[in-house]
Amino acid sequence: MSSNNKSNFDEDYNEISNGGRLKNFVHSVLEQAIALSDRNPEWANYILEQWANNVEASQNERLEHERTRERHIHLLFSQSAAGSMKQGLSGAGLRYESKVLCFNDLFSIGPLWKLETQEGQENRHSWLAERMVHYESFHYSNWEHRIEQMMATLSEISDDKSITIWCGSNAHEQIGLRFALYVLRKRATPIRVINVTDAMERESNDRLNADAENPFPLSMSVVHSKEIEGLIKGNEDKIHVVSIEDRRRYEQEWLELSEQDSVLRLWDNDQIVHVPEDYFDQALLDMIGQLQLENNQQYVNTGKIIGEALTQWSQLRSDTFLEYRIQYLIAHGELEFLGMPGMLHRYAVKLSGLLSPLSD
To answer: Please, which domain of life does this record's source organism belong to (predicted)?
Structure first.
């Protein structure tokens, strides 16, 4: 290459870059290198190696830039809530300096025994996989949100980043709060917590889409992104720092939960309450009987039953747990089914035998 050509290199580069041809040119060079890797390995492999090195360096620079830019960590307990949080942060102009993390589990159901250990995680996984429809595929498709991975991610958060944990007044998020604080127990810098139920109750007059029967959201999963934006922008006083004394209390409460063998928990009177696995069974049977009468039908669609239950029982947010209990009642002769169990809206159930309100 002549000195004149060298001196024009930057100008030429800018020309093809601005003209949108650079991507095609690089792609062409790489294709030729691959094609010539057998006949001219010295040249081709050098090109491919340099390309791979530069891609890796670029990725590392981007990740480091993101780590430097992200000064605030927001922790939630469902992917839907995390999505709303990202939108809320965008509206508040804080998206690019914030990182949103979430567990994608349901701590109100399933074993919590020794969940902070691999043995406890395997025990929980086995219990849920045996009972919950499609649990395996759901579990393995959300690797970064699994308990063991989230524990590692939380433990690696540097002390120069702030952490805010978002929750509501329900068993799932309250248990998640205690678990997260236990995982973060060695963190020296402050941790902030906002309970959206309490925060929105204090400002109920400004609540968007207020529901007369249940004006305050019990879970982050039902909080609109606009409401999150409002909380972020104008309610710093409601996002309080957890005192050391409260952190130690939450950590101890987690250790007590970790010793329990219950598989179903509710939030009642500001307490986590352990209830039997069949706690909702009779209410399910009563609801099915009532729906049979109201619709004048022998069989009631399972999806309709679960939809009604989730509407009426605000503390229970798991359609999979309810379907598990319906299938349990089928297996034990309390219900009869018609259709394809395992496909929620493609089978229906009725009360068995003399229990049926429509039988003579």
So the answer is: Bacteria
Amino acid 126 reads S
End-to-end CA distance of the chain: 98
| pLDDT score of 88 more than 90 | yes
What whole-number distance in Å separates Cα of residue 1 and Cα of residue 107?
Answer: 66
Whole-angstrom distance, CA of residue 198 vs CA of residue 80:
20
DSSP class per residue in 81-150: HHHHHHHHHHHTT-GGGEEEEE--S-TTBS--TTTTSHHHHHHHHHHHHHHSTTHHHHHHT-GGGSHHHH
Find the largest Cα–Cα distance for the chain: 101
Q: Which amino acid is at 4?
A: N
Q: Residue 288's closest CA among 275, 301, 273, 271?
A: 301
Contact of 151 with 120, CB cutoff 8 Å: no
What pLDDT shows up at residue 355? 46
CATH code, residues 281-355: 1.10.10
DSSP 8-state symbol, 264: B
Q: What ranges do the domains of the chain cover?
A: 3-67, 70-274, 281-355
Query: Which residues are CB-contacts of 152 (< 8 A; sequence separation ≥ 6)?
Result: none
Reported pTM? 0.77
Q: pLDDT tens for residues 298-354?
A: 999 999 999 999 988 877 778 899 999 999 999 999 999 998 887 778 899 999 974
Res. 67 pLDDT band, cuts 50 70 90: low
Query: What burial letters (b/e) apply to 99-120, b meaning 16+ CB within 10 Å?
Result: bbbbbbbbbbbbbbbebbeeeb
